[in-house]
Every structure is written in structure tokens, then in C-alpha cells.
Amino acid sequence: MTTFAIPADERAIRPVSDQELERRWRLARAGMKDLGLDAMVMRAAGYVKWFADTPAGGTHDSIVIFHADGLMTKVDHGAKGGKRALKGEDPLNRGVGDVLFADAFPAVHYTSGYEVPLLSELLKTRGYRAVGLLGAGQMPHAFVQGLEEALAGSIALVDASDFVDLLRARKSAEELPLIRETAAMQDAVFAKVIEAIVPGMRDFEVTAKAQYEGHLRGSELGIFLGSSAPVGQRAVFRKRRAQGRTLRAGDHLTLLIENNGPAGYYCELARTIVLGKASAELLEATAAATSAQANTLALIGAGRSPAEVFDGHNAFMQQHGLPIERRVYCHGQGYDLVERPLIRADETMAIEPHMCLALHPGWETPSMFINLCENFLTTESGAPERLHRTELKVFELGF
């Protein structure tokens, strides 16, 4: 078994190894050389996590500047004009040379460009000519506009998302077992939820149990959707605010667990749970969704285009009298809940081996909602590897 050295720091729950980060940096710098980029700027959570193995988002954004040569620079929330020299020696900020501070708040609109002078001065001082933006569409408008104005005439800004997205989608030898571990964690969480559900619980207590069990297993972040209803009514995915209903004997519940694992990788698992006996409609829909899943897995293979797979899925749905898919029913996953490739008509990234895909065929009728969700890894040849071990069925608890 291959082992990976992890930096000794008791505060990090589950970091990736130094070797993994260095692998990413080498690949990124090779792509930057091809594009003629001196640096890349990012602030979306998935990009920041991939380059620096630190979470981003929440109350305050972290901005990372990845240089073609030298240690990274971070811009974090803090005292205006502050600076901390880490020199690449902080185990919680590996590869970071300096941290600059700006007193900006995402919810306070007039501060959304406060980081711009710090970045523009740094990039100009280093004499850069071309800088890539990663996930520019996820950055605040005032930030991007301010950066464009501050660098106009001196530094060209280029969208570099495509090549980095492909690097992120190609999971490494270290990442693959970590993703498998995330799926196994969610199987364990679901099993604990099944043990705990009883009539009288409210929907949010069920999702809170899932969140708690995930945290105990090293998860950091996640979304837990679901709701209950009498059999014969739709039990759709609902956010926490709408999870106030009380479960009764005979009800059914749809639960979606979308949390990340100890190393920060996301998977997602969804099943239907009945506190009694499932309706024939629900059982038939689950069987049909299982067949739709198998059809997609037969279509997915190295070199296939997402558009081909998407068309094949909708052809299957039409042939079986089911609603065609108009949303994203299958997509890449990693440090973001949804990342490339998206399995739909407009995706340009081809499917390759060692990509993690979340697959969730589903639909609803006036009396039923079905969503069968779990993860797979694409392989060199043959069928994708199924990661979750939770049974493909409606869970009837016998109340």
C-alpha cells in the first residue's frame, strides 16, 4: 500500500500530503507556462482548497495568488494594511509566503473592492504581464471590475479556469482513497440515521443527526436536505428552514446527505425512508431510477462526451415513459459539491479515468418524489466503480 507523508500538525483534521500539494503546483505551473501566465488569482472555495488545502468562504473570503515562481500570497480578513510573513513555514498554510489583510465583508457592499489595492500593487511590483482568474464568475462584481480597472494597460487578465478545472477533475492516486473514505463515511452516517428515526421526530432532527454523525467522523462542511410527507404526497428536498414537520407512523422521508469527508472531498447520498410500508408507486419509481442509473453507467466511459451520455439518458427516460432531464442529474465532484464535468449538452470537458461523478436520476409527480443519489469513480476501462454501499432500495422501517 502506498503511504503519503502528512505534515505533523495536530490542529488540521485531515490534510492532504505535501507531495499531493506539490504535484498540483507542478501541474498548474506547467499549464501557466503554456498560457504565458505569471500568476493566478482565486477566491472560490474549491480552487482555494485545491491549491492551498485551506477552506474558503463563510463569513469572509480568502483570496489566493498562485505565482508562477515562488510561494503563494493570501489575502484574508483582518486589520487594514496588516501583513504576516509565513515564509512557507506555517503547517496550516503550506506553500504560503505572505498573508495580507483587508477589512472587507461580503455582506457590506462598499467593502467588496478593498482587497484590490493589495493585489494590484503586488502584481505590478512583481512586473507581471498576464494574470489568470480562476472562477471569475464566482467573484464579487466590484472585485473583478476593480481589478480590471487597476491593472488596465499594464497587466492582462485571462480566464484560466478551463485548464485548472481539468486538473481538479483528474483525481490523483492520493485523492482516490480519500474520496472512497468520504463515501464510506456517508454510508455510516445514513446507517446511524436509520437507527435513530422514530415517529415524533421533526424533519430537522433527522438532518441534524446526519450532520452530527458526519462531524464525529471528521466532516467539516455540508448540506442536508429532505422532508417528510404522508405516503401519496411528495417528500421533496427542503432546506433546514422548511424542515419543521413532525414525522408520523406511515410517513415517508427523502434524505440527501451532501457533506465532505475528513480531507474535504464531497460525495452525496440520497434514499427514501418509509416509517411503514412503501406505496407501489414509490417502489416502482425506485426500480425505474435504479434502471436509469444503470443505463447511465453503461454509457459513461473514458473519452465519451457528457453530451452523448446526457442524450442517452434522456432517450432512456423517453423510452420508459419518464420525464426527460432538464437539470444536472450527473456531475463531477471533489472540493466543491458540483464541479466539472457536468453531464449535459453544454459541457466541453470529456470524461476521463479517475473522475468522481455524483449520479442522481430523479423526478416527481403530484403524489411522489424520487431521487436516487450516490457516487462513482470512472475507470481506465469498463464500468465505473460504485463507491457507496448503501442498498439501492426504499428503506421500510416497520412503524
Give an overview of the whole structure:
There is one protein chain. The protein is α+β, with helices and mostly antiparallel strands and 399 residues long. It is built from 9 helices and 18 strands. Strands 4-5-3-2-1-6-7 form a 7-stranded mixed β-sheet, sandwiched between helices. A 5-stranded antiparallel β-sheet has the order 12-11-13-16-17. The model has no long low-confidence stretch (mean pLDDT 93).
CATH T-level topology of the largest domain: Creatine Amidinohydrolase
Distance between the termini: 45 Å
DSSP E strands, number: 18
Low-confidence parts lasting 5 or more residues at pLDDT below 50? none
Tally the helices: what do you get? 9
What are its keywords?
alpha+beta, 9 helices, Creatine Amidinohydrolase, Chain A, domain 1, 18 strands, 7-stranded mixed sheet, 399 residues, Creatine Amidinohydrolase, 5-stranded antiparallel sheet
Topology of helices and strands:
Elements: H1 18-35, E1 39-42, H2 45-52, E2 63-67, E3 72-77, E4 83-85, E5 96-102, H3 116-125, E6 130-134, H4 141-151, E7 156-159, H5 161-169, H6 175-196, H7 203-216, E8 222-230, E9 251-259, E10 269-274, H8 280-299, H9 306-319, E11 330-332, E12 339-342, E13 356-359, E14 362-365, E15 368-371, E16 374-377, E17 385-386, E18 395-396
Give a quick summary of the entry.
The protein is α+β, with helices and mostly antiparallel strands and about 400 residues long. The protein folds into two domains: about 150 residues, Creatine Amidinohydrolase, Chain A, domain 1, CATH 3.40.350.10; about 220 residues, Creatine Amidinohydrolase. About 30% of the residues lie in helices and about 20% in strands.
